[in-house]
Amino acid sequence: FRDQAATMWRTFFTLISLLFAGAIVLAAVAWLLGPPIFSALFPKDPRPDGGLLAVLVGSSALVAAMCISAAAALSRSEHLLYSVGWILAAVVTVLGLLVPLPLVPRAIVALVAGPTAGLLVHAIGIAASRRRGSAG
User: Fold this and answer.
1) DSSP string, 11-54
2) CA–CA distance from 108 to each of 78, 101, 105, 133 (Å)?
3) For labelling alongside 1, which of 14, 93, 119, 124 has CA 20 to 30 A away?
4) Residues 23-57: tens digit of each pLDDT
């Protein structure tokens, strides 16, 4: 990102698009094939639902997207923004675990809401820093 400042947003959206496209494919595979594979590998353990496995893949993609947005923030010397995004993601994740829902829905809320909040903070902050930089 640092060496390609003029095309930072194009690079950012290309990486995010590729990441989410791959995540959609992998989440579908997890949904369809995950439970039977899990049962074959761990026949004595409870079989997880395919939807839960797909959410786990999706939440992993959100964390990976945060890694991309964090690098973009650092490339613009936005160290505070970088930190705030990760800290907010952690706080929202913990708060998600406190939502009064059954265990699996509560875990899903925590796994999705945390990285989504951090990703939004990074992306909005980077866009705002760009406007501040072009205004000055």
Assistant:
1) HHHHHHHHHHHHHHHHHHHHHHHHHHHHHHH-TTSPPPPHHHHH
2) 30, 10, 5, 38
3) 93
4) 999 999 999 999 999 999 999 999 999 999 999 99
Contact at 8 Å (CB) between 54 and 30? yes
Centroid of chain to Cα 68 = 9
- What are 41's two structure tokens? 């590998």
User: How does pLDDT run across 48-88, given as a tens digit for each residue?
Assistant: 999 999 999 999 999 999 999 999 999 989 999 999 999 99
* Dihedral in degrees, nearest 10, Cα atoms 105, 106, 107, 112: 90
Question: Do residues 72 and 1 lie in contact, with contact meaning Cβ atoms separated by under 8 Å?
Answer: yes
The pLDDT of residue 130 is 67
- pLDDT recorded at residue 63: 97
Helices (H), 42-100: 50-75, 79-97
3-class secondary structure, 46: coil
SS3 104: helix
Residue 43 carries which side chain, given as an amino acid letter? P
